[in-house]
Design a protein that fits this description.
- A seven-stranded mixed beta sheet has the order 7-6-5-8-9-11-10. A four-stranded antiparallel beta sheet has the order 1-2-3-4, sandwiched between helices.
- β3 and β4 form a beta hairpin.
- 65% of the residues lie in helices and 10% in strands.
Amino acid sequence: MRKKIFSIIFLLGFCVFLSQIVIIRELFVIFYGNELTLGIVFFFWLLGNAGGSYISKKLEIKLKTLPLVFVICQVLLFFILFVMIFLLKSNIIFNKPIQGEIIGSGTMILNSFIFITPFCLLSGFLFPLACRILNNCLNEPSKAAGYTYMLDALGAGTSGIIGNFILIRYLSAWQIVLIIGALLILNCFLIFYFLFNKFNMVFAVIFSCITLSIFSSGFIKILDDTSIKLRWQGYLILENRSSVYGQITALKKENTVSFYDNGLYAFTYPDKFSAEDIHFTALQNIEAKNALVIGGGLNGSLSELLKYKNIEKIIYVELDPLIIDMAKELLPGDAVPFTYDKRISIINTDGRAFVKNTRQKFGFVIMNLPEPYTSSLNRFYTLEFFKEVRDTLSADGVFSLALPSGENYISPEQIRLLASTYHTLLDIFPEVKIIPGGTNIFLSGKAKGLITLDGSILGERLKTAEINLLFLSPDQIPFRLSKDRIDQLNLQLSPAQPLNKDLAPVNYFYDLLLWASKTSNLLVKIVTMLERVFTIENILGAVFTIGIILLLFTIVKKPDFIPLSVMSAGFTGISLELIISLIFQIKTGYLYLQLGLIIASFMLGSASGSYFAARSMEKIQGLNITFNYLFLTLSLYPLFIILFFSKYTGDINIFVFLTILFIPSFIIGALFSLANRISPDKNDEVISFGRFYAFDLLGSAFGALLTTALFIPLLGIYFTLVTITCINLVTLSVVLVKEHGAWGME
């Protein structure tokens, strides 16, 4: 019977985590991949689960009715998931007035809370119920709690691997939702069969046939088409497809075709004005034979580069091959010259990974990527990346990038972003010049004297190259290069700004501030205040002050602070998962499938630790002492991460990352199981699972929010890791003082 209940809990964990993958991918499209918005989503997600777990602990559900409640909740879970996906795909709830427009902060926060809470409350409610059902079979409360935590994590880890490597690669969101529904209802059949021996094979077969027929019929296509049409009202939808990297939508309006990548505008064809901007870079080195273009080449700019007779080879790097495939199908020939001109080579890989590993030298490198509103994009605007680009340039090579600006007015928030980028480039390149406009073009030369903003010189070079342009003729170039505007922009950007680095991504924070300025003046004030307050000195001072207050409270009241340890462990777990994922991005490039492995490694580590602790409790002498030593190891582990990545600067194998994350997750899983044994609920030991599960999720919720939105952007990765260590050491000190200073001995 025990193993049968194990399978039920495992399947529930599998379905809930797979649901999370689907929902987060859809929210990724809505929120354009920004870590602040996703941090808030994770915050509400984990907070909702914590609330559901706490409610489950408080409700006195009779043992006889537990299975029925468990079944009803799973059916409701599928129904809520189905409604959520439809609302997300149709984008009704977030009310975006203009397609591709960034959602306002107030709308995002309020709707995230309303939208996510029902599903998360219900999923958080289910796991304490599962723990009670398992305990009814084992009659060993501490083991039941440990096994439930283990099976939840094991199901989630397995779901992460299968979901990322198989389901998401080959199936649509609706198909995955129906699979989840089938598994949840199958779980309901298993509960009745295992606990009551009531299982009708005929009903099971009928249900399976209906599910398979829906899965293979046009019902899914109807759902998908209806939701997509609701999202993109006013446009002719040419194509909407998903890949492992996201969702690509091609829309037609009048005579133009626009591509949206994960809900955010990517490019429009034809767009001659933007495409011709590429000549400002090419004219700096008209003798160049090799060129590298990173992203954004499908608006016609690749065709513009081919007009230079000296060009022998153009390498175009685009991460998602789906964009290339859709462009071939939907755009005319001059938009996709790589189909007929052998001088262009398409490389589908991460742009930074290509730059780091290539041995080729280029006369110019052009980066056409969006501004750094996410940490994964910010890594293309850092000191380390600029150094890698410089190393790929020939002796007369030029590097260019572009950032949005204003024709006549640049906001203070925009200036900070532009200035940080400017000074970071100046730290690597001996010469950096900027062409002002609605989009500022940054030109960086490998040597001084390579770049000119003299309109007459560039006009003559254009004539020499015998290139005819629509918007950028030799007579028009001087108007774009007004000396007064260039001098004014240089004056605005001249004050020093912090350099943008991989492990201290200030540009990412500045872009968050810019996003706030476009959506809410109140949010700007809050973020600006937090920037002043969130210094490493103030944070550590606050941590130690809170620690002293808790120590004094402990001496007087002697409360049970083990739940605080569980919450701190949850905070540490989610923070380390996010940090290791970010470092992995920076070191190896954004490879979605491998990041799925990292998530699975964390969940499987938690499952292994919980299982080990649950099986070893009877053999361990001094559970409190073991708990404290494990917590001390977890507290110091972030310092090991700092030491490792500061000393080891070469290429790192994926399995090294998996191991680095597996170790703390193993400790966290073991701590959770031990916590249920050393600090049980006074009335019902197994109910303590709901309390500790809630504290674990609560810590994880605040960890997701603070780490992505504040700690990493404001403190950098290393200081964030130091802060995590200090928080845990203060928590451990409080626990030890509660135990009269002894390691677990009264």
